[in-house]
């Protein structure tokens, strides 16, 4: 019997030839990340332990992204503590000026196929798009990783999602994953590795990152995609490197086919990510704020799609656009997107999580409606518990910004 | 490990933003966090909960973010254990790591009543209801039970690294 890519990476990390779903293993960690919100708790734990020397400073990255630049004295203090720790042990720190959404920064600079990656953030599953096994952990276990370089894992069952066909114009990776979560439910892949195969190979790395990013929203431990030429090019490694892939006879607890040709733009309605419908069925809802960004949709491909739509037009509703990383920001600037956004009447902020978690900027008031490209529409996620959040693709968000109400982007295709 | 307490019933998919909203994540003191636990579901839950109380919930408890603030806030509010049909995996790990027992039971939510006083026996793997009925629960692998007995991963780490100060 063959193994899935997830089983192979965990087996390698555990120093074994073979592992099976359900088995508990101790894995050696290749890369560990914590950020400005989860990091301080990790350091608290280390302080209580009375020993804080990392097992290998070169395998740890600290990234400021949730509230950066600091928005309060409390945040400033947390940043200060993390800065001091990074300096003490020469740990890579992405501080102000070099800050960006952790998962995007990890994708751009650190993650390679075949790695076992843990991050003190639930959307660490994003990085599975690069053929790594990447999953989110809590702050206390991050402390254990910092000290030991190891962590326990239960080898997950895998579910195969086979993508088939081509997306039509105006439909994007976000619509694919929203559609899948709508079908699976928020716990439909609980504890499992969600492996995306088939015509996922036609999709760009940016699109793949979007899809794996939201695997956690159906309860999955990770989203993962077998590496191919695009992956090796993006991660800048030769294809001989870490080329770990699922065997043809690997076992899955479920195999699901997803047809792309007929897929329409999707929206997750309040207050659950699996409350998904085609945008065309709920068009016309008045919108107070549009947010384009986050670790789901703040990449270059997303900004490109938005720029195409906003070019020469004005937004009718307040619109916040946030590139996910300095690299994305710079390239968007070079290509003239930033100017297009500003001329359309949007505000463009520095790379950070922004309104996504309601802790820093773009916070919603009572009864306000936000159309967002982020990944969670829970009650209170972006501010007031009385606000409503609709999750959509960058294309849908852009046309909604122009119209001031929830709008199907297919209307604008080719325009 | 045996726990006894009064039951609070919760529904399915109680997410981490409902447990502790994102705006409080800059708070790192569990006692302060506890003051806001579940405030978007039950007004001033913190003043109503009694030490030892037990939460009995539906499926996918703790879904959402990896914030350890969530189990920390629940524990610091005085809750002794959380029983659910299923847990989101990061919440499950976090809870054990900070020493909050999380118990998987298929049946508990369907039969146990609000305010009922129940008993949980972790080693022997059952819940006992007021009327004496026993519900079986999923047993932990041994090393996880050890972490819980230690009172959390922190204590385990302390044992391993604490004296080794350089
Ligand atoms: S963008 Fe949102 S979901 Fe992504 S890491 Fe930041 S807060 Fe979390």
TrEMBL record, chain A:
Its cofactor is [4Fe-4S] cluster. Binds 1 [4Fe-4S] cluster per subunit. Gene3D superfamilies: Aconitase, domain 3. The keyword Protein transport does not apply. Pfam families: Aconitase. Keywords: 4Fe-4S, Amino-acid biosynthesis, Branched-chain amino acid biosynthesis, Iron, Iron-sulfur, Leucine biosynthesis, Lyase, Metal-binding. It catalyses: (2R,3S)-3-isopropylmalate = (2S)-2-isopropylmalate. [4Fe-4S] cluster binds at residues 295, 353, 356. GO terms for biological process: L-leucine biosynthetic process. Residues 8-281 form the Aconitase/3-isopropylmalate dehydratase large subunit alpha/beta/alpha domain. It is an enzyme of class 4 (lyase). Its EC number is 4.2.1.33. Pathway: Amino-acid biosynthesis; L-leucine biosynthesis; L-leucine from 3-methyl-2-oxobutanoate: step 2/4. GO terms for molecular function: 3-isopropylmalate dehydratase activity; 4 iron, 4 sulfur cluster binding; metal ion binding. Belongs to the aconitase/IPM isomerase family. LeuC type 2 subfamily. Catalyzes the isomerization between 2-isopropylmalate and 3-isopropylmalate, via the formation of 2-isopropylmaleate. This is 3-isopropylmalate dehydratase large subunit. It comes from Thermoproteota archaeon.
Automatic annotation (TrEMBL), chain B:
The keyword Transmembrane does not apply. Residues 39-100 form the Aconitase A/isopropylmalate dehydratase small subunit swivel domain. Its EC number is 4.2.1.33. It is an enzyme of class 4 (lyase). It holds the Pfam family Aconitase_C. Pathway: Amino-acid biosynthesis; L-leucine biosynthesis; L-leucine from 3-methyl-2-oxobutanoate: step 2/4. SUPFAM superfamilies: LeuD/IlvD-like (SSF52016). GO terms for molecular function: 3-isopropylmalate dehydratase activity. It catalyses: (2R,3S)-3-isopropylmalate = (2S)-2-isopropylmalate. Gene3D superfamilies: Aconitase, domain 4 (3.20.19.10). InterPro entries: Aconitase/3IPM_dehydase_swvl, AconitaseA/IPMdHydase_ssu_swvl, IPMI_Swivel, LeuD, LeuD_type2/HacB/DmdB. GO terms for biological process: L-leucine biosynthetic process. Keywords: Amino-acid biosynthesis, Branched-chain amino acid biosynthesis, Leucine biosynthesis, Lyase. Signal peptide: none annotated. CDD domains: IPMI_Swivel. The keyword tRNA-binding does not apply. Catalyzes the isomerization between 2-isopropylmalate and 3-isopropylmalate, via the formation of 2-isopropylmaleate. Belongs to the LeuD family. LeuD type 2 subfamily. HAMAP family: LeuD_type2. Heterodimer of LeuC and LeuD. This is 3-isopropylmalate dehydratase small subunit. It comes from Thermoproteota archaeon. The lineage of its organism: Archaea, Thermoproteota. The gene is leuD.
